[in-house]
Amino acid sequence: MLRGYVPPYNATVVQKLLDQGALLMGKTNLDEFAMGSGSTDGVFGPVKNPWSYSKQYREKRKQKSHCENEDSNWLITGGSSGGSAAAVSAFTCFAALGSDTGGSTRNPAAHCGLVGLKPSYGLVSRHGLIPLVNSMDVPGILTRCVDDAAIVLGVLAGHDPKDSTTIQDPVKPFVLPSLTDVSKLCIGIPKEYLTPELSSEVRSLWSKAANLFESEGAKVIEVSLPHTSYSIVCYHVLCTSEVASNMARFDGLEYGHRCDIDVSTEAMYAATRREGFNDVVRGRILSGNFFLLKENYENYFVKAQKVRRLIANDFVTVFNSGVDVLLTPTTLSEAVPYTEFIKEDNRTRSAQDDIFTQAANMAGLPAVSVPMALSNQGLPIGLQFIGRAFCDQELLTIAKWFEKQVQFPVIQLQELMDDCSSVFENEKLASVSLKQ
Amino acid sequence: MAAPMLRLCCPGRRWALACIDGCSRHRRGAPNGCTSSRRRGQSSVAQQPFITAQKPRKGEHEWAAVVGLEIHAQISSKSKLFSGSQVHFAAPPNSLVSFFDASLPGTLPVLNRRCVEAAVMTGLALNCRINKKSLFDRKHYFYADLPAGYQITQQRLPIAVNGSLVYSFCAGKNRSQVINKTARVKQIQLEQDSGKSLHDDLRSQTLIDLNRAGVGLLEVVLEPDMSCGEEAATAVRELQLILQALGTSQANMAEGQLRVDANISVHHPGEPLGVRTEVKNLNSARFLAKAIDYEIQRQINELENGGEILNETRSFDSKLGCTIPMRDKEGKQDYRFMPEPNLPPLLLYDTESLPAGADPQQVIDIDRIREQLPELPSVTREKLVQQYGMLPEHSFTLLNEVGLLEFFQNVMKETRAEPKKVTSWVLNTLLGFLKQQNLAVSESPVTPSALAELLNLLDRKAISSSAAKQVFEELWRNEGKTPAQIVSEKKLELMQDQEALEQLCHAVMEGHPQVVMDVKKGNPRAINKLIGLVRKATLSRADPTVIKEILEKKLAS
């Protein structure tokens, strides 16, 4: 639909970065209209995870199988902001922007070994962000280390008169303190997040992380978010309803793809939208319209809103009981090969993969995925921290401490290593950042 | 432009089949050609073009009609409701369209403060309860003039509810009796206007102009408290005057700033309400009453013939003078209402609830707005009656004619003449001339100053009233002369010289002894002849009453 579309204005977040001297290097690939968890359903084709070509992964694969066609079993990045993740992961750029509605920034961050930040809803302007679900979208930030994410957030956060859902309070750029003492922290582990689908590797890393905090003096307790099991269904009802509404503007009349039919306005609309949207988008529009019908509105949309309130309240209760931050997995497992991912359809995959991430969107809370370690296959696994609303700074401070503890390795890509070997010899951190 | 003169309206709400003393005696031209077999009967009263002429039949019942209105008024503001593009009538197509208006992805609505204030002002003027919290919703439908595929409106919780619109008209013998009627205001809501589409059938295309897309509208919903076209038209007229007095809308129907949809049904008194139809987009004051009355009669006819009324949408064909179904509105529309997620609830305050230290730029205080409300038409009319001893029906005419009140007030400022005289000259003479040539008050060749000067001359008795009329006609020709100049040019001054006048009278009496005889004999009309002769002799420059006095004195002696 928007293939040839060149927007005539800059999004606020883009403009803010440009105003601070950033260079826009390019636009990245994604799932069409941010609908998906693999970045496989875009008009420009699927996105390949740079870790597919990493030394760490390749070496592990060689051990397992022989005569492998180098490129046939490449891995997905996760999604929907997979292109942005791939760009940052491959050292193409300092940082990238994505969007996060149900986990679309944190999911690929985890699969690509990056820091993926979803700020609090209302902290960062959505003006210029093509909406998926207006009440849950936020611009997402992808970087190689937490300090970088904090820098970008400091530039982007703050009230925007063009976005009426941003908070009024002024926000100043900040520098993250380097926490040394975590004994005053209380980490919550939501028990409902321990699902059978969780891979054993992720589960054990999650445990390890909890133990890490405990051993350093923090209080680590099990907490309960009782409405977690309703979350995914509730998310789907609200998401598709808003999608149906937000996609109504794409009619080919003012901009974007327009079909050749001109028999009547209706025929033109129908053909334009059939041609311009893929199956995933069309499926969600149809579902959404169903939920918004007069006879269904109360039972689906309003009900879902009520459940949403309950989910948000779950978090409030937990945070009010003294928990500073929640620690959960980001994804069920490490990145899977493309050929395996596409065995299930988009909707199924989304339902599976959003499970840990979408609650934060429902509740508007800040959440960040931090890479922890490599799997047995040599692929990144990340864990998620969820913080109190508008306590993004505190959240990142804790994430930064964690990052320092785990010392996640830098991706070893051949070309990179040849160019920057001197840099990497001296520095184990994943970021080529301003600190040097 | 000009509002219809206030007329008699339906006494009560009864529509007899043989509509004898029925609703408005329309004199709006010959019955037009919308033929339906029912209309050819002869009634006992002639000249009933719409309210039909039918033979009373066995088992006839009386009918009552109910009319509700949805009125859309464009808010008078510099920019649109949710975006910064300008609001302007008749600008080049698509020259006032912001990214948001064109529904470019990623754009978000930002509420216009002025529009909210306009809604609050209007709500207060209509005695509504202002909701301190109101919500915005999306109403979805696909149409080329709606770029986003939805309109942002207030369906769940509008900004103002439960008010009333008092409208009055003059009835009775000489239209001297003022009757007040009230239509309840169900609600007032803020919403976006759509763009304009022009269908070019020749080239099989539709042209879309988005200048109007996103302009702020006030939708005023009136309950079905009206019972005929005239009542509806009067209510709309009063609303127009209120909006114009408040400055919240220019409410000019010709420029599309005020559009009316009517909901009409008929039933037998005492029985439940009938099925209603909606007549959409009545864009002219002239056709408003016509269309409503036509539809009422159509429904009566239909039901009388054993048919049934469909709950449908119709439009008014002004050429044929009848309502026709709108094809593309067949089938019920489900607008899939959904809360607008990009706009938080709209919170208004009053002096009590205003948070301390609140930035006045960011909040609206209802009490403040109430204090600053301009004078409403009903108050203005009352003041005119009190201040100038004017008849109520005159106060209506003064306000109903655009610019007439201001004209009147300007004349009053510059003249010592009695208000009654001024009123008479303005309402009868000036207005008469304007109507004859179909001019607006603003186009009057006679300025308030000129009329004031003329009235001063009259008041000083420098000229007679017939001379004054002559001067007025001369002024109307707009040749740049002042009244004084005209008077002196045409030698219209009244003779001030008493002696000279007496001599003339004497001369005339001398010259017409037989007429003098007649007078002395007691023929009352004879003296008029003498007066006439003297007048001629004075070249009409003498006051006839003075002449009569002198003659009578002389005759008596």
TrEMBL record, chain A:
Q: Which Pfam families match?
A: Amidase
Q: Where does the Amidase domain start and stop, copy by copy?
A: 1-54, 75-396
The broad enzyme category this protein falls into is ligase
Q: Which reaction does it catalyse?
A: L-glutamyl-tRNA(Gln) + L-glutamine + ATP + H2O = L-glutaminyl-tRNA(Gln) + L-glutamate + ADP + phosphate + H(+)
* Compartments, record wording: Mitochondrion
Keywords of the record: ATP-binding, Ligase, Mitochondrion, Nucleotide-binding, Protein biosynthesis
Q: What EC number(s) does this enzyme carry?
A: 6.3.5.7
Origin: domain of life = Eukaryota
Per the entry, what this protein does is: Allows the formation of correctly charged Gln-tRNA(Gln) through the transamidation of misacylated Glu-tRNA(Gln) in the mitochondria. The reaction takes place in the presence of glutamine and ATP through an activated gamma-phospho-Glu-tRNA(Gln).
HAMAP family under this entry? Answer: GatA
Self-association and partners: Subunit of the heterotrimeric GatCAB amidotransferase (AdT) complex, composed of A (QRSL1), B (GATB) and C (GATC) subunits.
**Family as reported in the entry's similarity comment:** Belongs to the amidase family. GatA subfamily.
* Protein name per Swiss-Prot or TrEMBL: Glutamyl-tRNA(Gln) amidotransferase subunit A, mitochondrial
Q: What is the taxonomic lineage of the source species?
A: Eukaryota, Metazoa, Chordata, Craniata, Vertebrata
Automatic annotation (TrEMBL), chain B:
Top EC class, one word: ligase
The record's annotation in PROSITE patterns points to: GATB
Q: Which reaction does it catalyse?
A: L-glutamyl-tRNA(Gln) + L-glutamine + ATP + H2O = L-glutaminyl-tRNA(Gln) + L-glutamate + ADP + phosphate + H(+)
Q: Which InterPro entries match?
A: Asn/Gln-tRNA_amidoTrfase_suB/E, Asn/Gln-tRNA_Trfase_suB/E_cat, Asn/Gln_amidotransferase, Asn/Gln_tRNA_amidoTrase-B-like, GatB, GatB_Yqey_C_2, Gln-tRNA_amidoTrfase_suB_CS, Gln_synth/guanido_kin_cat_dom
- UniProt domain Asn/Gln amidotransferase: residue ranges: 406-555
Q: What keywords sit in the KW lines?
A: ATP-binding, Ligase, Mitochondrion, Nucleotide-binding, Protein biosynthesis, Transit peptide
Per the record, which residues fall in region Disordered?
29-48
Q: Write the Enzyme Commission number(s) for this entry.
A: 6.3.5.-
> Where would you find this protein in the cell?
Mitochondrion
Matching entries from Gene3D superfamilies are given as:
1.10.10.410
Per its database record, what is this protein's job?
Answer: Allows the formation of correctly charged Gln-tRNA(Gln) through the transamidation of misacylated Glu-tRNA(Gln) in the mitochondria. The reaction takes place in the presence of glutamine and ATP through an activated gamma-phospho-Glu-tRNA(Gln).
What is its quaternary makeup? Answer: Subunit of the heterotrimeric GatCAB amidotransferase (AdT) complex, composed of A (QRSL1), B (GATB) and C (GATC) subunits.
Q: What is this protein called?
A: Glutamyl-tRNA(Gln) amidotransferase subunit B, mitochondrial
Q: Which source organism?
A: Equus przewalskii
